[in-house]
Amino acid sequence: LEKAKANQIAIVYSNLNKKLWFEENELNELSETIQKIFTTNNLPTDHLYISGFSSGGDVALLVGDYLTKNEQLNLTPKGIFIVDSPIDLAELYFSSEKNLQRNFSEVSVQESNWIIKMLGDRFGNPNQSLTAYEAFSVFTLKTSSIKNINNLKNTKIRLYTEPDSLWWKEHRMADFDQTNAYLIKELSKTLINAGFTKTEYIPTENRGVRSNNERHPHSWSIVETGELINWILDQ
User: Fold this and answer.
1) Predicted pLDDT of residue 15
2) What are the extents of the domains in the chain?
3) What sign results for the dihedral spanned by CA atoms 221, 11, 30, 80?
4) Helices 55-69 and 24-40: angle between axes, nearest 10 degrees
5) Which DSSP category does 221 fall into?
6) Which CATH number fits domain 2-87+144-233: 3.30.300.30, 3.20.20.30, 3.40.50.1820, 3.40.250.10?
7) pLDDT for 154-193, tens place per residue?
């Protein structure tokens, strides 16, 4: 926050938590809320950046696409960055199935049960049909679908992740293709192949440490703040 203030960057925090997709009416409501924040605080709208950690990255990309598509809102983001986000809902379901079969980590089992129930209740089983998942997911690896962020082709995008496969194997018994890092790398390749020339894939190494000094690659700390601020300020 102090570095942002020193560079005259205003930050607005969202209280959305564990939000992995949006229903259409929710995107409209959120965009109206964002618009009100800018109006009430007399903030400039010509240098907007949206970001998020974990599921917050899904929020950032989806709302960024919506704002870009609806130009009349006058809130087109200049840039979006995500930090180790679970961008593929179908793969999240598949990975959770594998975690339950392994039954290795209590944390992993609890989270996987929650994910399968939540996604299954809303979209059904992706092993039977991917259609509903594609309709709401940032990215669908099995079909290379990026249709929900197609409007961001000319937007600056940064994809941060720390591909520490050894940590995930040791602590969760997870394969690399189950990690956010793997899917983020695949998204990057898909976007670049589709002409998203302002997309940057940024893998980090040994930066994932949480506030309690616990080593964890799924952490905000993988982002180098000063360099990120320079990217934001770059016209």
Assistant:
1) 84
2) 2-87+144-233
3) negative
4) 80
5) G
6) 3.40.50.1820
7) 999 999 999 999 999 999 999 999 999 999 999 999 999 9
Percent of the chain with pLDDT over 70: 100
Place of tokens 């309690």: 212
What are the structure tokens assigned to 133, written together?
């998942």
* Amino acid code (one letter) for 178: Q
Distance of CA 124 to the CA centre of its chain: 22
Sign of CA dihedral 127, 128, 130, 135: negative
pLDDT at residue number 17: 79
Q: Mind listing the pLDDT tens digit for each residue in 92-151?
A: 999 999 999 999 989 999 999 999 999 999 999 999 999 999 999 999 999 999 999 999
Contact 156, 198 (CB under 8 A): yes
Which residues are paired to 53 by β-bridges? 83
C-alpha span between 147 and 165 (Å, rounded): 29
- Residue type for position 101: Q
CA-only gyration radius of the chain, Å = 18
